[in-house]
Amino acid sequence: MRIRDISHKEVIDARAGQKLGAPGAIDLIIDETTGKIEALVLPAAPSLPFRKKAKEWVIPWESIQRIGEDFIIIDPHHVTN
Length: 81
Hints:
Blueprint: H1 3-6, E1 10-13, E2 18-21, E3 27-30, E4 37-43, E5 56-60, E6 64-67, E7 71-74
Parallel strand pairs: 1-7
Antiparallel strand pairs: 1-2, 3-4, 4-5, 6-7
């Protein structure tokens, strides 16, 4: 799977069953020694359209329950904003 494939999937909160949105642009945090993905970094939607910088969501790899064809299902317990 390529990073561009992940960036077009809807993110779903498994506990609330709520859509959190599609990330669009996405970054990865990678452990330099092992090369493993530690977390996904997704841009959060800004609360105001003229706001210069939106916050980001950092989703630890362990919080991702499933990556499907259209969705990424996460357990939001360890997600930081």
